[in-house]
Amino acid sequence: MTIRNLVIKLTSGAEAAERTAQAFTVAAVAASSGARVSLWLTGESSWFALPGRAEEFELPHSAPLPDLLEAILANGTVTLCTQCAARREITEPMLRPGVRIAGAQVFASEILQDGTQALVY
């Protein structure tokens, strides 16, 4: 079986709770199913890169965001957009363990790999 790559770019946060939960759910399920998953936090989702922020998120009938995030981190990568971090004055030492900051060059290299599917939420 070929391992597939899945890159998900999430632009929403708590203001679009269903879209946000969908992105985390798809990423966690794919990662748990053996896909190489890379979740990119951009825009308002940037805040989920900080400790405690996923724990504040609630959506009825949705898996808890901290559990989904931990599943993604255990089996894939979570990246905070460089420009989004700078606009929010988020720095590396402030990040939840396992989250990295990277920019467009890294994003482009990930989505241009053969066998990669990209989703934007």
UniProtKB/TrEMBL annotation:
SUPFAM superfamilies registered for this protein in UniProt: DsrEFH-like (SSF75169)
Highest taxon in the source lineage: Bacteria
Record protein name field: DsrE family protein
Organism listed in the record: Actinospica acidithermotolerans
